[in-house]
Amino acid sequence: MRASRNLNGRGLLRRNPQDACIWYPTDKAYSLSGVDRPADMELANHCGAVVAILAANHAQASDIEPIDIDGGGVEVAIAPPSALARLPHHPLAALFPMIPDDELRELADDIAAHGQQQPVWLLDGAIIDGRNREAACHMAGIDAWTKEYEGDDPLGFVLSLNLRRRHLSESQRAMVAAKIVIWKRGVNQHTTGSANLPTRDAARMLSVSERAVIAARRIDTHGIKELSAAIREGKLSVHTGEALTRLEHEAQQEILRREKKEIVAKSKEIRRNDAEKRHQVRLAHMAHVVESGAATAGRVAQKFPVIYADPPWKFGVHSEVTGREKSAENHYPTMETGAICRLFGEIGDPAKADAVLFLWATNPMLPDALRVMDAWGFAYVHHWIWDKEVAGTGYWGRDRHELLLIGKRGSPVAPLPGTQPQTVYSERKGGHSAKPAFFAETIERLYPDLPRLEMFCRAPRAGWTAWGYETGEGRE
């Protein structure tokens, strides 16, 4: 039977749709064998390029006369469908969903009529790609044609095959990316965020935003199976599904029984209510930070050769359409530029005589950032660019990038030749003011053994001393 599946996959055999034990040669098989097509003949089993033609009237195996193309022979063994062995599935095979039952039946009919055109790929004897083909072959009573993967990047191989032949939406790709994170087993599901390497890597591999992957992971962990299935099948967006996970499982089931427009409307309602709650919490939090932040941040006693700062610039963007001011004050407490300039002296000038400063600046605040850099005792030398991939707002132009200015004091150690990063890095923007972890990680790579200070830090990171109104006292 193994020989039959091999030539079936190569288009040399086709199965009798009514009897899985009977095989017929295709036109291609007759052409290769040089044998004229008989009036009433059936094809049994074969091996490699050998084709065996059954005698008329459904001859038994003992009556078979093999027709030899390459000079070899074959023993014919016919197995009923019930004897077909099923292959185990590798976890990678579950990255992409199975096709619906009606499509699977169509695939089985096509394989029965025309043969299996592509192999089922195995890794250590388990399917990594081709679950649908293997299931369709079993449905047709055919042993699937398999090939063992021998490369060193099975994940990349599976993604390449499926992304090339499947037309997946961003939401469907996000669900795949979420499974990649789980497969790599690198993180705790409750700490997935913008600084999470497996999440960011998976987002890049599937060309989706980190936010979409985080939403997909929440759906996998907090959503019911029907919700996950609806998104994998392209019926709902991942962001609609993520909002529905705020509901209890029974409520999720009830919502999913409604029409799509009702489901989407409910999702928007949930997001709107959540946004209002978060806004009230932010306002209360910012009031507390403004009142107690300066006291809790404290002075910095240690001197640092490497400083990374993302000041809370105070500026408003006027909308000529609405007439309203859109301010960063809606998201976090801000500071006047003069107060930021004076800050170094107030907290004890944390920079060494030879130090390097990495200072974030937006386009409209570039002069202010250069003013702060000078006030802190640094001279501008270079800058890196973060391309946010999505354009935002702006009066003279719609901003889609921010600048990370680099300044030096004294004679700090410069990066070794060949280790410098490219000056432009692209990553889709996340939460308001949140910066990609790539930049802090690049600084770590360039200065692995030097003490590092992150100013205006909101979430302390390992290996850094954190200072900021939202971190408590400066600490490592």
UniProtKB/TrEMBL annotation:
GO biological process: methylation
Domain of life per record: Bacteria
InterPro entries per the UniProt record, alphabetical: MT-A70-like, ParB/Sulfiredoxin_sf, SAM-dependent_MTases_sf
GO molecular function ontology, one term from the record: methyltransferase activity
Pfam families per the UniProt record, alphabetical: MT-A70 (PF05063)
UniProt keyword terms in alphabetical order: Methyltransferase, S-adenosyl-L-methionine, Transferase
Family (UniProt): Belongs to the MT-A70-like family.
Protein name, per record: MT-A70 family methyltransferase
Organism: Ensifer adhaerens (Sinorhizobium morelense)
